[in-house]
TrEMBL record:
Record protein name field: Arabinogalactan protein 16/20/22/41
Tree of life domain: Eukaryota
Length: 60
């Protein structure tokens, strides 16, 4: 059960760091209302990593 806590903490750390990067990117580009393709790509990458993690967890 302790290994499950370690994996949960790692997951929470990566997930929150991704949210912090997205919020910081929005704060710096708040003056311009242009859509940033890099931020969209990064968001899609985070979602795909989350799906991969969940699939790996369910299979294991």
């Amino acid at each position: 059960m302790s290994s499950m806590k370690v994996y949960a903490m790692i997951f929470i750390t990566f997930f929150l760091s991704g949210l912090m990067q997205i919020s910081l990117a929005q704060a710096t580009t708040a003056s311009s209302r242009m859509v940033d393709g890099k931020a969209i790509d990064q968001g899609i990458a985070y979602v795909l990593m989350l799906v991969a993690l969940l699939v790996t967890y369910l299979i294991h």
